[in-house]
Amino acid sequence: MTNLPDDRIDPYESRLSRRVGAFAEQAVRPIDAAAIAAAARAGAGREKLAGRLFGSTASIGRFGVILAGALVAALTFGVYLNAGGNVAPAQTPADSTPATSAPVATPGPAVAACAAGNLAGVITAWDGAAGHRIATIDVHNGGASDCLLPRYVALALIDAGGRALIVNQSVKEPAPLTLPADAYATTLVDMANYCGEAPSAPLKLRLYLDDESSIELAPSASVAASVDPPPCNGPNAAAQIEMQELHLK
Amino acid sequence: MIDDGSIRAAVARAATGDEVAFARIVAAHHDDMARVAFVVSGDVELAQEAVQAAWQKAWAKLGSIRDADRLRPWLVSIAANEARQLIRSRNRRWLREAVIEDDAPGGASPAARVAADPASRAAQLDLANALAGLEPDDRTLIALRYAAGLTSDEIGRAIGMTGGGVRARLARLLTRLREELHDDEPA
User: What are the tens digits of pLDDT across the range A98-138?
Assistant: First the structure.
């Protein structure tokens, strides 16, 4: 519900604000932000070119509004595949704990956040199960010293041209992982229900380290480059992309 | 929800054509824009269409935003304008039409999809009819103030009025709505 601003005009505003706020909630629907952004970009481009490009903005606009999926994402992410294709027991990010050998968490004052320029990431495996695509990813600290890597980051599944297919901006914020120099962190990224236009291969992932920097992860040489995006489970479910906690490899 | 710092960074990146950053802005502001467009238009589907059109304009003009603090007022005002243009272009009446449709067999209009509880439903239909009796400019003021929570000054900047002018006009609207909605008791 929207808060009433501080510059009150009349005591009645509080009551009217509640009424209007409750009324306006009818218009709120689950959305696919990546699809809406893509449609906005495509529509703006068409407008700029004064109709010289083909396509319909109306259908894209409707495509951008997709119903409910966050809960589905939370439930389905309990099942994941290892790189070898084995189904692991259900595990949630909250349940997962770093390996006992990992130099866990507590950021020392001398350890700086990992700079994107010092990190390199790859997708080491693509797996699929029950309408999902699951990427195993590695992130390598190529810098000369230890650095702090967020255990969860904002994510995007992107195509070869950098177009965002699925975006997740919800990020848990536990203490960061201390990633030693020349060490690898790894985790799984789960994606489902992409209903947009066919993307150009290879599919990649973008990990946002913070608000200013990100790294792009392409499939490693040993991984098939032509993996399809997660199949569309229907326009009534939202696209999803979720990650498990990054931990030392 | 993205914090203010993240929004600033996302605006900066999106202004350079970063679609992923733009998607983060969409995720943060789409709901507010839908609320505003709905209060202006009275039609959920039309509101969604207006918001999509607003995102298209926002993508094209995001570079003009110098102050990220003004992003939200800017976005919701674009959504309000798009909703106004759509209802004008389609010569749509506001919710009076939708309320009638809702009573038709199988014709549950999204605009009249109000709370199942009869008292809430009646209250929302009263509000819908009261809003329907307002001019589009006045519904825009109501939407920006009570659906988006903008200050008088923010509304003024968005629609080209002074903050004082906004307050005076809202005060008149409050008096009118309080009478029409029989909201005479203090909040």
Answer: 333 333 344 445 788 899 999 999 998 888 766 788 888 99
Alpha-carbon distance of B105 to A204, in angstroms, equals: 49
Dig out the tokens for A169 from the structure. Answer: 């901006």
Contact between B180 and B142 (Cβ < 8 Å):
no
Residues of A numbered 230-249 whose beta carbons fall under 8 angstroms of chain B's beta carbons: which are they? Answer: none
DSSP E strands: which ranges in A45-144? 80-81, 87-88, 112-113, 119-129, 132-141
More confident residue, B10 or A49: B10
**B 123-182 near A (Cβ less than 8 A):** 123-124, 127-128, 142-143, 145-154, 163, 167, 170-171, 174, 177-178, 181
Q: What interface predicted TM-score (ipTM) does this complex get?
A: 0.84
Q: Do B30 and A36 touch (CB under 8 A)?
A: yes
Predicted TM-score (pTM) of this structure: 0.55
Using DSSP's 3-state secondary structure scheme, residue A80 falls into: strand
CB contact under 8 A, B35 and A24: yes
**CATH architecture of the domain with range A68-248:** Sandwich (2.60)
Q: Is residue A19 less than 8 Å (CB to CB) from chain B?
A: yes
pLDDT digits 0-9 by tens, A30-49: 888 888 888 888 887 666 54
Cα A248 from Cα A81, distance rounded (Å): 18
Only one residue has tokens 């976005």, namely B75
A179 within 8 A of A248, measured Cβ to Cβ: yes
**How is chain A split into domains, by residue range?**
11-65, 68-248
* A65-92 mean pLDDT: 36
The DSSP bridge partners found for residue A74 are none
Tokens 């380290």 correspond to A209
Crossing angle, helix B71-89 and helix B152-159, to 10 degrees?
50
Measured between beta carbons, which residues in chain A are less than 8 angstroms from residue B143? 20, 24
Determine which of A12-26, A161-175, A204-218, B18-32 has the lowest per-residue pLDDT on average: A161-175
Chain B neighbours among A 162-181 (CB < 8 Å)?
162-164, 167, 169
Which residues partner with A215 through β-bridges?
A: A207
Instruction: Count how many Cα atoms sit within 13 Å of the Cα of residue B178 in the half-sphere of its side chain.
Output: 16
Residue spans of the domains in chain B: they are: 4-180
The SS3 of residue A168 is strand
Is residue A14 within 8 angstroms of chain B, CB to CB?
A: yes
